[in-house]
Structures are given as structure tokens and as C-alpha cells.
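Give me C-alpha cells for this 377-residue protein.
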Amino acid sequence: MSKIKREPESGRKVWILVFVAISVFCIVFFSARGRFATPWASGAVITALAPFQRALTWASSQINGGLTRFGEIMTVHEQNQKLRREVEELRAQNVKAEEFSAENVRLRELLGYKNSATQFDLVMARVIGREASTWTRMLTIDRGTQHGIQKNMAVVTARGLVGVVTDAGVISSKVELILDPRISVGALVQRSRVAGIVEGNPENTIQPRLVHIPRNEDIAEGDVIVTSGFGGIYPKGIMIGTIRSVQNDSTGLLHLAVVETAVDFQRLEDVAVIVASREAPPEPLTPPSQTPGTETDPREKQAVGEATTMAMETALRQAGEEFKNAPPVAVSSPPSISSQVFAADSSPSVMTEAAATTRTSQERRPPSTSGPVPRRP
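Here you go.
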């Protein structure tokens, strides 16, 4: 019975809802067309539509906001991609600028060495190859015979000795480093002038050693090692490195020193090849210091000496010209014997005059010489 009663009540509720919905629809429809102009109808329509209008407004605002945010996100994404590309370009440019700056520093260093080492003719070269198996023994440079490179030419940097050219090609050459145990370089201890040989150390591939040093010779840690010039390959006076430690060899009769090279072979990029070597010009002489108050100008003394020399030369030149331009002077010959005899036979007055003439001519006669008679002015 309860179920039968509930079914008519539920059906009645459905019909009421349908009627209300139709009524609302009709009211909305006719109010929209202006059929109902009564205030209460308009108010009812506004009240009935308010929830729907709020929902539509919220939905439209959400849709507009979503579209706006989506457009902004797309714009930001495009700007982000553009900025990423600019950052990558700037990073690449920064890397290039750093490489150019480092190369500029290296080349300036080599150029300064070239200008200071006037006794050498240098050809700049770049390291273009190093093999893993011979990393500490051999490298390849981008200069060859067409650039004037020949075998057995020394290779240096601004810091010191690198090695020697062992194979010269047309456009490239191979350089054997002083770290190679097969290479030997005549060396001198700069402080004590002790001679020895620098050679590669098989036990330490980055630090060569100075060998053949007698125990009684004066060498110590920190001494500078330079080339001795013996052998004709390496010019004298090129920096090799400094002594790091000194020890005795296996026999106990000789010293053996570990040398820390001046060149960093792990960062070797640009080198210079010595194609010609001359004796270094002597340093200019500097005058000794003078006591205050007694300073003299060397240039003033030189000027006075030059003026004195010129005055003497001028006086001698004028005397020579006057001697050449002087008129000749006739020299009277002495009277002959016949004239003297004739004078003797003459009267006393004539004899007196002849004697005076003879005495005058003798006084004017110059002393006898082996050369010609000089003319008096």
C-alpha cells in the first residue's frame, strides 16, 4: 500500500516540476519579446535568470582568463626560446673572445721575445698535433721547409727551450722535446758556470735531469740552467729551467740534479723556430758615477776635443797654402875665381867692393842640403 501511494506522489511532483519549468520558460520567452511588461514579471525574470547569468559570466571569465593565460604562456615560451638562443650565441662568442684573448697574450709574449732576442732570426709556428704515445716526446708544428725550417733547428718559446726539429716537411715539421730521454742538451749552471748535460728522465717524463756533474762542483737547488752552446744546435744562453733537487748517482762520484723546466709542456700551443743565430750585441757602456759637485759632461769634453782638432787642421791647411803661393826668391851665385883674380889686379877700391859683394852672397846662401833649395817668402 505504501508503494502504491508513493508512486502517485512522485508522479505528481514530476508534473509540478514540469509545469514550473514550462512556466518559467514562457515567462522568459514572452518577457524577452515584450509581451509582458509588468514590473513583477521583469523582476521575476531577473531573479530567475540571475543564477544563470552568474554562471555564464563566471564560465566566460574563466574561458577568457584561460585563453589569455594560454596566449601569455605561448608568448613567454617564444621569448624563452629566443633568449635561450641568444644565451647560446653569447656563450659561443664569449668562448671565442677568451680564445682570442689567450692567443693575443701568447703572441704578444712571443713578439716581445723576438724583439728582445735580436741575435736570433725566429719563425713563429703553431702546435697542430701531438700523439698520445709520444705526448712528452714529440709534437708537430705548422711550418716546414717552404718557411725556412730545416732539420736540427732549435725550437723555443719566450720562457725557454722546447726542443729541436728532427723532421722537416714542406708545410709541417716534427719537434723532439727536451723531455725525451733520447735527446741531450749541453747546459751550464748560470751561477757557478758548471757545465753538464740535460737529458730526459725515463722515470719522470715531465722533469729532465742534469747529469755528468762532479761531486766537488758547486750546484744547489734553485740554480738556473741555460744552454751552453756546445754542439752547434742550441745557441748559448737559452733558459732551460731551474734545479729542483740534487742527489748522487749510482756510483757516488757524480751529482745528478732534477730540473724543473721553464716551459710548461702541457700547455704548449705556440712556439718559435731559430732559423739563424748571431752573437748577441754587447750591452751599452754606462759612465761611472761621479762625485757631487764635480760632474762633467762627456759630450762637452768630446766637443772641445773635436774643436781643437779642427783648429789644428785649419792652421796646417792655411800654412800649406801660404807656402805654395809664396813668390820665388832669386839666389845669387858666388863670384868665380877669375873675377876675384881680376879684382886683385884692379885698384884697391874695386877690391874692397868685390870683397863686400862676396861676403854678402855668402851670408845669403842657405845651408847645403840634399834636397832642393827652399824659397823664402
